[in-house]
Amino acid sequence: MPSHDHNKQNVVHVSYQQGASVLTNRYLNRGTAFTMEQRKELRILGALPPTVETLEEQVERAWAQLCRYDKPINRYQHLANIHATNTTLYYAIVLAHVEAVLPIIYTPTVGEACQNFSNYYVRERGLYLNKLLKGHFNEVMKQSLYDNVDIIVITDGSRILGLGDLGSNGIGISIGKCALYVAGAGLHPARVLPIVMDAGTNTERYLADKEYLGMRERRLDDEQFYGLMDEFMESVKTTWPSAVIQFEDFSNNHCFDILERYQNKYRCFNDDIQGTGAVIAAGFLNAIKRSGLPPLEQRIVVFGAGSAAVGVAKNIAQLAARLYNVPVDAVLKTFYLVDTKGLVCDNRGDKLAAHKVLLSRKEVSAADAQHLTTLEAVVQFVKPTALLGLGGVGPVFTEEIVKSVAANAARPIIFPLSNPTSKSECTPEDAYKWTNGAVLVASGSPFPASIVNGKTMKPSQGNNLYVFPGIGLGCAIAQPTYIPDDLLVAASACLNALTTPEQMEADQLYPPLDDIHNISAHIATEVILESQRLGIATNTDLPREKAELLKLVKKSQWVPHYPADVHVKLA
Ligand code: NAD
Predict the structure, then answer these.
(1) Domain end marker among 253, 270, 287
(2) pTM of the model
(3) What is the CATH number of the domain that holds 446?
(4) Is residue 137 exposed (0-12), middle (13-18) or buried (19+ Cβ within 10 Å)?
(5) Is the CB of residue 309 below 6 angstroms from any atom belonging to ligand 1?
(6) Which residues cross the membrane (predicted)?
(7) Residue 382 included in any domain
(8) Residues identified as active-site
(9) Ligand 1 midpoint to CA 496 (Å)
(10) For tag attachment on the chain, is the N or C end more exposed, with fewer CB atoms within 10 Å?
């Protein structure tokens, strides 16, 4: 479990000759913040300019440097450099400027960074696994720089954001998510580990690019791929038995199978499927509350039938069942999924991908199915009260479509959730305008407030950051044997309840994101309580009382700082 002493790790052991090596250790280095006394002790007096700065002063200077870069990608690189030289400073900057930094270290800029990751590559961060190391994963993990690991984020780079197969460049997404675990939940920076399982790439551009640093070959077949993944899961269990594994941006042909294969055997979850679902469900159930139309009276059309869409529908059904005491199956029947071929239904004459079967409409006739090939046609047919966008193709929620949804409900629910901004199904501003402000909106990307009929409308954002850090933190502390869906539902219910009545009154469906440390602590607490209730928490030393547990969780959260009483022990 994360040590409760993270904030007191203040004794630096380095040998006499290695004094200066503190400057090249990203976790120990504090650069200009080393006091004269510490510099003397470390024998690095001449290695730094004479000015001694506080962490706050360093943040201010680093921020001014960052602001001199116009392009977000250069700002990303600037922050990456700071992480590589002084990780404490990096997180102090992130936390001092959360809203401005998130779009740089995560979407949308992280997407651009990933697309060209090899071309920008300067130095290592994380772990690179591939078939050349097969049979040796255990050894590779033991040799790595990581002694104790709380969180692992692993991708195979096969479907990064909406950008497709980026091969080993996908490690940028694991790096970004790990940074959010630290910034969002207070995991210790040296105990979060980004990993790429480099199983090749089918992207011609990389195969032909001499600068591409991953395995320059086509993706492995399923047998080889699962051979690597099986060894990876077992090796983590052996090397870092307390780690939580988060699967990230695996393509649809693998992500569901991976979850099914490992979910009940290892401490793991998939953020794209389960995390997204938990976040959107929390906001959606708040929208339902505001709409006045209970879950079973909603008709919900979802544009897109991929991992996010299926996860969202299932989580909404589970949370609605918990909050309204209705059967999960009955809520699932209120969903109508639309993919590239139209309404997902049994009688349309094609073989559905396995993950779509649960939500496939059984009652729609073959004759009807033939006409239900577009979103417009499905909206006319279903007369939905709510519309979710998870197709990742851009502005398909037209004025006509939004207005026809508004005709079916006094407070229609429209969630354009696709990222990045250019892929959003509509802008919240348009949705407000077209419905005269009646709509309840949450978007995937951040959008500015807009003024409709003289009233300022601030759209809610269903950001994944709301739950995965808290889930990871809770699981790192409670050490459940595995991560059943109930833990995700508990997280979702917690987030749903954290929105205050005043925020709800203003149609805010989520609490403010700058309160993320506190939100994560609450979610972690509920996740621990649920693990205890289910009897799967292997850490049995924890209190079972909520307030006491919340206190313990908050105490375990690492915050960037230089301990005042650092002792440098020269051997
Ligand atoms: P995915 O590739 O698994 O799924 C995309 C789905 O959209 C597929 O079912 C596909 O058939 C369908 N689709 C694509 N083009 C279509 C078209 N022209 N007409 C109809 N259907 C079409 O991707 P995913 O992981 O499910 O993510 C989908 C989107 O959701 C992405 O844009 C992603 O950014 C977004 N997302 C948002 C959040 C969030 O807001 N918190 C979280 C995760 C994913």
Answers:
(1) 270
(2) 0.92
(3) 3.40.50.720
(4) buried
(5) yes
(6) none
(7) yes
(8) 106, 177
(9) 23
(10) C
